[in-house]
């Protein structure tokens, strides 16, 4: 029986512009590195292998809370030791907490002979997200676990749909400013205009159709958010310029990753994705804001588990 | 050169439950029968071959207004004589006015050697819809012209997407009560809760994915409208009972056709569609409301033109 696994838990982009709270996709890079060990005591031990000083008390730790939810459905005879080396910076808006939660439960499930379904794993990992942001959301966890582009048609009851997509290159810029998920959620209006909602679900329908039909133009035209982005983008200096200029150099479109501050752009080919990176770097350099960029692609496999 | 054509312009279902103002599909039956003749004068002559006493003054007639819009983009040397035999009852909520408008412009375009694109035809036919309901909407016209299930991602500028679908049987009941499109629109709230809008676009995404992936279960689960139906269904006696009981006998789901009063239900096979018809008949018989039912299927070709 395998007692220890290494796990790569990828970064993810939630919302995908118009698909607020329902769409998300996984990235090839960056990813967190984790080691999970099955132990003979019903406890969780968290070992941080990075400098983020994240809490190690299991109920306060995202991976710990997710594992506690999983252990609630076990017989109480085993536990887990988890080493976490975070490569996805907390607060970057590309699913850092989801990677910890999803990586932990996928790794644990592997050690248990894959007894839980992916829906179960999403459910457990959501308990980790609750520790991070106060809300049990699944739009990062689902693509992190399943890979590719995922749709959460309904969260209670959970109804997850995997959406195929054409090859997509992704450029992400993480400006080193702080946007708390909690605050990004607070500034949203509880009510929206029906006419805007209709535009939004027209775009959501276009985006899903563009993905499944592998129609890049339709996909690009549909990457428009008339409800959330106009409010949240105010929190991200340079947002409008980045978006306009990236589209000028050939990006299909993009927007805020999750609740920000990272911005992502989709491109049809890597050459364009690299041009987009240059534009992003220029804007934030001129604004005098430190930033980090990633040029990567959609990851179709989700969390990867390796026997050690 | 062909001088006369016969046209079959099908009934259509707009909205498709969660897809308010963006989705619609064409039906195999009923359809309007029209005859169009190219004439050497730049005028329009409307001849009604039914008992509905619809206006014959071209700007006041749905087909006439659509043809006037088309003729605005011609050289002013030809016109059209149109005989209309309406089989789709006006006010039934299955796109009676759209059929007249779409049938007229598709037939006229055929006589002109198909010089206009389908986007042009949608644009012309929308001028007919404006005469009928005061609003330039395209959610019946588009499936009527193109056939199948259509998505209007955006209306200004027009962006229409055809969506493939699995075989679907459709049962429609038209209770003989009056619901004016104008009034059905007036009772809607201008503002909606963001949380409801998110549910709705989750369902829209699920419905589009269900259609394209030919996943009947997903399609059925996604046929849920938390925004429009709770308000509009109040205008249709028996609505909730019809819906519940049709699903009990196996319908995938359904709802109000357009702005009502017709109700449609989708089924995987004809046997279920016939059971659904029985249920619909029982409910309206018991309520003492006259009704008419159709058991039909999605029509994938749209308006049909025959040379005479």
TrEMBL record, chains A, B:
<dbReference type="GO" id="GO:0005524">
    <property type="term" value="F:ATP binding"/>
</dbReference>
<feature type="domain" description="GHMP kinase C-terminal">
    <location>
        <begin position="208"/>
        <end position="284"/>
    </location>
</feature>
<dbReference type="InterPro" id="IPR020568">
    <property type="entry name" value="Ribosomal_Su5_D2-typ_SF"/>
</dbReference>
<dbReference type="GO" id="GO:0004413">
    <property type="term" value="F:homoserine kinase activity"/>
</dbReference>
<dbReference type="Pfam" id="PF08544">
    <property type="entry name" value="GHMP_kinases_C"/>
</dbReference>
<protein>
    <recommendedName>
        <fullName>Homoserine kinase</fullName>
        <ecNumber>2.7.1.39</ecNumber>
    </recommendedName>
</protein>
<keyword id="KW-0028">Amino-acid biosynthesis</keyword>
<dbReference type="InterPro" id="IPR006204">
    <property type="entry name" value="GHMP_kinase_N_dom"/>
</dbReference>
<feature type="domain" description="GHMP kinase N-terminal">
    <location>
        <begin position="63"/>
        <end position="148"/>
    </location>
</feature>
<keyword id="KW-0808">Transferase</keyword>
<comment type="similarity">
    <text>Belongs to the GHMP kinase family. Homoserine kinase subfamily.</text>
</comment>
<dbReference type="InterPro" id="IPR036554">
    <property type="entry name" value="GHMP_kinase_C_sf"/>
</dbReference>
<comment type="function">
    <text>Catalyzes the ATP-dependent phosphorylation of L-homoserine to L-homoserine phosphate.</text>
</comment>
<dbReference type="InterPro" id="IPR014721">
    <property type="entry name" value="Ribsml_uS5_D2-typ_fold_subgr"/>
</dbReference>
<keyword id="KW-0791">Threonine biosynthesis</keyword>
<dbReference type="InterPro" id="IPR000870">
    <property type="entry name" value="Homoserine_kinase"/>
</dbReference>
<dbReference type="GO" id="GO:0009088">
    <property type="term" value="P:threonine biosynthetic process"/>
</dbReference>
<keyword id="KW-0547">Nucleotide-binding</keyword>
<keyword id="KW-0067">ATP-binding</keyword>
<dbReference type="GO" id="GO:0005737">
    <property type="term" value="C:cytoplasm"/>
</dbReference>
<comment type="pathway">
    <text>Amino-acid biosynthesis; L-threonine biosynthesis; L-threonine from L-aspartate: step 4/5.</text>
</comment>
<dbReference type="Pfam" id="PF00288">
    <property type="entry name" value="GHMP_kinases_N"/>
</dbReference>
<dbReference type="InterPro" id="IPR013750">
    <property type="entry name" value="GHMP_kinase_C_dom"/>
</dbReference>
<keyword id="KW-0963">Cytoplasm</keyword>
<keyword id="KW-0418">Kinase</keyword>
